[in-house]
Amino acid sequence: MKRIILPVACAVLAAACGGSPEKAGRFNVLLVTLDTTRADHLGCYGYPLPTSPNLDRLASDGIRFDMAISTSGITPISHASIFTGMNPDRHGLRVFYGRTGHYLEPEHPTLASILRDRSWRTAAFVSSYPASEKFGLDHGFDTFSSGVSEEVMAGDPRLRPPKDGYWQDRPTASAQRRADVTTDEALAWLDEPYVGENPFFLWVHYFDPHDPSLVPPQEVTARFGVDGSEPDALLKVYDPEIFFMDGQFGRLIRHLRETGRYDNTIIVVVGDHGQGLGDHNWFPHRLLYQEQIRVPLIIRIPGGTRRATVGAVTRTIDIMPTVLQALGIDPPETVQGSDMTAILSGPAEKGRIAVAEALNTLDDHAPPQLPPHQKDLLFMVMDREWKLIHHAGEPGNNELYHLLEDPEESNNRVAAEPEEVKRLMTALEGSGIMQIELVDPDEPMDEEALEKLRSLGYVGGGN
To answer: 379 pairs with which residues across the strands?
Structure first.
């Protein structure tokens, strides 16, 4: 193995947390990750359709971050950053499979491992193969469930895709499960007597908006006028999938309230990445435009600020240190994120930048139908005003957008703003994210793993 650098020219705990470290140390932690969920399709982010009533209520009881940025448009990579507080170059999980890292090594402390070492009960209930132990995302969890298989699917009618309309030719869903199945498991775990003996850390991952291999019950799709016969059903089912997922999230919150745990639980809800939905001529994810890396982020800390909206740039790598600081625990020195509550104590920080990557030419499962200029090693750096997408192989394709004037990223200003390009390239180089450790995989991905990715549209697809 060798390490290369691509040849390219990157607090004080706010009073909002409330309580002393001794009191805060007894807080439970609930982390809910929303796969493939765009911020601009939630009501609390201004979406006109009623897709997210339960998430909207949480936003009104906590802090909503308006410009939260993920490190990647791919599920395992973005989740590794959420758990470690590090960018992909530091935690090493960078592709599904290929010529660089595709596994989160246990040497990296995670939010789960840190809390488990301090006597928290830790459990995870995830809804798809890309968020599973196959990528090392189980590190630190006493209980980890991603149980999806043909056998399980055959025994539960909720896990069989419809066989009529648009969905009649969809692949089987053996690598994912619907949000109601995952929620059932999470609630059963919360009811276990031993869970109440110590504070808990619970991770619940929902996958529903990713694709239509599994769809919500008919009464949900009908509520949004979708019956599967429309030529654009793939697009139209996105909102009802979010609505159904939101309802299952609501079950979690109701259970916390009914069992008296809500007021003693830190709640974090975050998207791992968004979805193209046709913007920039691309329907899935994996690229670095805002619709794919700007994610919803809502945090509620017991005794903390309510009904707040933060417009400053925040990053998903900031979640882990924010939770630890609220619990009175110092983050590891390796953490690159920083406590988000510092933003609440005064004017928005001006120096915080976000970076992200899409190593499309090193990933064996990069979709062949990617636009030609996206078949590259892509790196992104942004602040609240400007954003640069750097094409490492073909810098002539670089893209610069003024986000305040051009939030849809339609006017590339690379040629017109050389000083901004220079400034952001300096920040990108200083971040370290362009350092890549190249490896030669010992053996091909096993056939079972390939089939699971194929069922989700990754192998020979574009998700």
So the answer is: 357, 390
β-bridge partners, 401 = 387
Query: For the segment 144-195, what is each residue's pLDDT rounded down to a tens digit?
Result: 998 765 555 555 666 565 655 555 555 555 688 999 999 999 999 999 988 8
pLDDT bin (cut points 50, 70, 90) of residue 17 is very low
pTM of the entire structure?
0.90
Helix, strand, coil in percent for the chain, rounding step 5: 35, 20, 45
> DSSP letters of 163-231?
-SGGGGGPPP-TTB--HHHHHHHHHHHHTSGGGGGS-EEEEEEE-GGG-SSS---HHHHHHTT--S-ST
Q: Is 452 strand, coil or helix?
A: helix
Neighbours of 431 (CB within 10 A): 19
Contact 363, 98 (CB under 8 A): yes
Distance CA 453, CA 463 (A): 10
HSE-CB for 152 with a 13 A CA cutoff = 15
Strand order in the sheet with 354-359: 354-359, 377-382, 386-391, 399-402
Give one DSSP letter per residue of 61-88, joined into a string: TSEEEEEEE-S-SSHHHHHHHHHHS--H
List strands edge to edge, sheet with 294-300.
Answer: 143-145, 121-125, 200-206, 28-34, 265-271, 294-300, 63-69, 308-315
Domains of the chain: 11-351 (3.40.720.10), 357-441 (3.30.1120.10)
Cβ contact 27:299 at 8 Å? no
Q: How far apart are alpha carbons 166 and 228 in whole angstroms?
A: 5
Neighbours of 322 (CB within 10 A): 26
Say how far apart CA 294 and CA 76 lie, in whole Å: 17
